[in-house]
């Protein structure tokens, strides 16, 4: 079992950048493929992207390609999400999640953090 804690969210102006972190405890994070999701008010949770156990491969949802970058440092038991050129449409709660097998839907993920709020002002 692994516990996940996100951090790094906040209020940022449009055009700015943020780096979100997801710190894992318990079982080592290298055991899991990791994903980042987001959920805006009134909308379903959607995949931002995912990264393999080793970090050698990443996948991004089509609408997320170009401004989002996922990376991981297994030695620090931490996964990151870099977001550039933020727009108000990026306002959401961002979640990291761990999966034994990986995938692109929330149902494929076994463990979730509590989320970190990102708010982008225009």
Give the topology:
Elements: E1 2-7, E2 10-13, E3 18-26, E4 33-39, E5 46-51, E6 58-60, E7 68-73, E8 78-83, E9 92-99, E10 111-112, E11 116-121
Parallel strand pairs: 2-11
Antiparallel strand pairs: 1-3, 3-8, 4-5, 4-9, 5-6, 7-8, 9-10, 9-11
Spans of 5+ residues with little confidence (pLDDT < 50)? Answer: none
The dominant shape is globular
Radius of gyration, in angstroms, nearest whole number: 13 Å
Q: List SSEs in N-to-C order.
A: EEEEEEEEEEE
Which structural class is indicated by helix and strand composition? mainly beta
**Helix content range:** under 10%
Name the assembly state: single chain
Ends apart, CA distance between termini: 40 Å
Report the mean per-residue pLDDT as an integer. Answer: 96
Let me know the number of strands: 11
Strand content: over 45%
If helices are DSSP runs of H or I spanning 4 or more residues, what is the number of helices?
A: 0
Could you give a short account of the major beta sheet? 7 strands, mixed
């Amino acid at each position: 079992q692994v516990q996940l804690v996100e951090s790094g969210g906040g209020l940022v102006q449009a055009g700015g950048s943020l780096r979100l972190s997801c710190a894992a405890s318990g079982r080592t994070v290298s055991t899991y493929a990791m994903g980042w999701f987001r959920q805006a008010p009134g909308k379903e949770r959607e995949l931002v992207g995912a990264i393999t156990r080793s970090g050698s491969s990443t996948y991004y949802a089509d609408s997320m390609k170009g401004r989002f970058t996922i990376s991981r440092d297994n030695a620090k038991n931490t996964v990151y999400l870099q977001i550039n050129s933020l727009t108000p449409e990026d306002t959401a709660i961002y979640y990291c999640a761990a999966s034994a097998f990986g995938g692109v839907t929330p149902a494929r993920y076994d463990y979730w953090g509590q989320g970190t709020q990102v708010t982008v002002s225009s």
